[in-house]
Amino acid sequence: MTDLSALPPGDGLRGTTIPVLRERGQREVFCGLTGIVWLHRKMQDAFFLVVGSRTCAHLIQSAAGVMIFSEPRFGTAILGDRDLAGIADANDELDRLCVQLLERRPDIGTLFLVGSCPSEVIKLDLAKAAERLSAQLLPRVRVVSYSGSGIETTFTQGEDSALGALVPLMPRSEARQLLVVGCVADVVEDQFRRVFDQLGIGPVAFFPARRAGDLPSVGPNTDLLLAQPFVGNTVRALESLGARILEAPYPFGAEGTTEWFAAAAGAWGVDNALFQTVTKPLEDRARKAVSRHVPRLSGKSLFLMPDSQLEIPIARFLNRELGMRLIEVGTPHLDRRLVAAELPLLPDDITLSEGQDVERQLDRLRAAAPDLVLCGLGLANPLEAEGFATKWSIELVFSPVHGYEQAGDLAELFARPLDRRERLRV
Ligand code: SF4
């Protein structure tokens, strides 16, 4: 149990002695368009229009698993051959399409124009398009743009880019407030709000909010508490407006969640006895839910391929609360500042790798023969065919996994593939 009085000031400056293996080679990752799947669920007045190719449309459709005749809040404006050859004026066409869309969908308050590889190849200026359309459509609809493309990105960076595009539009405020940064499911937001209320911490805003139009304010008295470790650019943009980051582990598992609340409680001067009263029963319940999966996971070895940028906090949770043995913890990008409170919680006999050279990493994986592999969709099937048990990292952003109430579900996500194998063996 975290004792607030035991937390040293400036705790986040702790480091780690684990050496980092940096690799720059072929990567197996999804692009940032994938973020639309969870962002459109969260921001219920937003529409995401990908300006891209049939491949982009395909990726989004299959990632979201939607039927073509439903009216989701995302779509693709497909660039045709004439656009790509520069014959047609893609700008005129895009403006016409957006206006049509917004006439048909009066529920849309924020329209995101999402850049893709094809729109970037033909240098279609979506930032300009957003400005042009906003001038025409405000105050009813705000149009913003960001890039979801990426050979060099990871699928979670789409969220960072989308939130980053909203930062310049946020109202400024001098008032003291806590801003939770990174998309969390509504059910998690409600639970977190209840705990902050009980601790007397507030006002608290979430970014993104349930309505993209309800932009939280930011200023020199805004404390940032991060719910996701992949929002580095957004955090830097918020810091440039005066906000300051509260370093904490991420709210995954019982321990991580308590430490996360403790960072806010420490900054807001919450009384230690009150903190214990509020969090202890919740933490105890979470530990009990997690402990159900200890017999299945304890002592099992885990190899985390770099995919979602959630690998470090998830590895910490599985190691410390479930007793899993970590072999390699891979992350696509190591932003030391954003994981400063996580790194010292990892055991120091692991390989911590950043970036990817997929063939070399697969060689290491095969040599280590782990019981379970956390990886992207592209690697899961081939690895299953080789006999490895896998868990898709994308599930960590598609399912609610933050906080006390979800700690047991998070553990179960990892227990399930091993259970399935066990049953198949019988
Ligand atoms: S944005 Fe690029 S990487 Fe992503 S689906 Fe479209 S073409 Fe593929």
Summarize the structure.
The chain is of the alpha/beta class. It has helices spanning 36-42, 54-64, 81-84, 90-104, 117-121, 126-137, 157-166, 186-199, 232-239, 253-267, 272-291, 294-297, 311-320, 358-368, 377-385, 395-398, 407-425; strands at 20-24, 46-52, 74-78, 110-115, 142-147, 177-181, 204-207, 222-226, 244-245, 301-304, 325-331, 351-356, 372-375, 390-392.
Protein model, in words:
The protein is an alpha/beta fold and 426 residues long. The protein folds into three domains: 121 residues, Nitrogenase molybdenum iron protein domain (Rossmann fold), CATH 3.40.50.1980; 143 residues, Rossmann fold; 122 residues, 3-Layer(aba) Sandwich (Rossmann fold), CATH 3.40.50. Helix content is 42%, strand content 16%. It contains 17 helices and 14 strands. The strands form three sheets. Strands 1-12-11-10-13-14 form a six-stranded parallel β-sheet, sandwiched between helices. Helix 7 packs parallel to helix 9. It starts with 19 loop residues before the first strand and ends with a helix. The relative contact order is 0.14. About 2% of the residues have low confidence. Iron/sulfur cluster binds next to helix 2.
- Total count of helical runs of at least 4 residues: 17
User: SS-based structural class?
Assistant: alpha/beta
* CATH C-level of the largest domain: Alpha Beta
Bound molecules: iron/sulfur cluster
Second rung of CATH, namely the architecture of the largest domain: 3-Layer(aba) Sandwich
Number of domains: 3
Helix content bin: 40-55%
CATH topology assignment of the largest domain: Rossmann fold
Largest sheet: 6 strands, parallel
Give, in spatial order, the strands making up the sheet with the most strands.
1-12-11-10-13-14
Number of strands: 14
| N-C termini distance | 40 Å
Whole-angstrom Rg = 22 Å
Q: Which consecutive residue ranges, at least 5 long each, have pLDDT under 50?
A: 5-14
Overall mean pLDDT stands at 91
Which band does the percent of strand residues land in? Answer: 15-25%
